[in-house]
Design goal:
Structural class: alpha+beta
Oligomer: single chain
Distance between the termini: 97 Å
Order of helices and strands: HEEHEEHHEEHEEEHEH
Strand content: 5-15%
Length: 247
């Protein structure tokens, strides 16, 4: 199975992470300023009936309009892609506990097919009949089941729609679309992110070069100013001496 260790992990995680909770996107919504956050995170930012984007103070929304915010489908699909090829890699998600709906889920029960917070995990599975259930931490859960066809797993990536699909998806909803295997999609993603990393390194080197050149020019200008200052001071002393001699 392809893992995030095979990809440029840091860049990939940053692209699918919410800037507020720092976890992978869950129901990502786009604000008018184009910034994207988890819907739950956006709701938590509302104060006195209004929302101010934490990244741009001049963008203000009223609470009534928050429900109408469009879903960032690109961010959602990218997050789903990361979750499908590997567990959370140390990150938790904004997935709420399916039982209490109050706390963030930390575990998954394969038998119940439910996300549980730590408290609900302990209380529910303390019952003797449920103690044999297989509890899996979300950090170890592999998200590979197709949400539209629960009986099938993600096996392909639709190149046209840029989403993960199962066999039934290819036969119906994505019929006649070009596709590739998850392995090939992961390799392609790796190549793209490596290219991004190389471009960033190139930009960094260019900026460093410009800064060094600017620093060099600045130092030269400082040296010239200091020399001119010394010349002026020397000229002043000479003129002052001449005036003293003429008295």
């Amino acid at each position: 199975m392809t893992t995030l260790n095979d990809l440029n992990t840091k860049q990939l995680q940053d692209l699918v992470s919410c800037a507020i909770c720092l976890d992978y996107y869950q129901d990502p919504r786009v604000l008018p300023c184009s910034h994207t956050f988890c819907f739950k995170c956006i709701q938590q930012l509302v104060k006195d009936g209004t929302l101010i984007c934490p990244l741009r103070d001049d963008v203000i929304m009223y609470k009534d309009n928050i429900e109408k915010l469009p879903i960032n489908r690109t961010a959602k699909d990218m997050a789903d892609f990361v979750l499908s090829i590997n567990p959370f890699s140390g990150k938790k998600s904004c997935q709420s506990c399916d039982n209490c709906s109050e706390n963030n889920a930390v575990n998954w029960c394969d038998v119940c097919a439910v996300h549980y917070c730590e408290s609900c995990t302990q209380s529910i599975h303390s019952i003797k009949a449920l103690q044999s259930h297989n509890i899996v931490p979300l950090t170890e859960k592999v998200y590979s089941i197709c949400s539209e066809h629960p009986d099938d797993k993600f096996k392909y990536c639709c190149s046209k729609c840029e989403v993960l699909v199962c066999r039934d998806c290819l036969l119906f909803k994505h019929r006649d679309h070009t596709f590739m295997s998850l392995k090939d999609a992961a390799i392609e993603a790796k190549i793209k992110f490596q290219a991004i990393g190389q471009e960033i390194d190139k930009m960094k080197k260019n900026l460093t070069k410009v800064l060094d050149e600017t620093k060099s020019v600045t130092n030269q200008q400082i040296q010239i100013v200091q020399e001119q200052k010394q010349d002026i001071e020397q000229t002043f002393v000479t003129l002052q001496r001449i005036l003293e001699e003429r008295k």
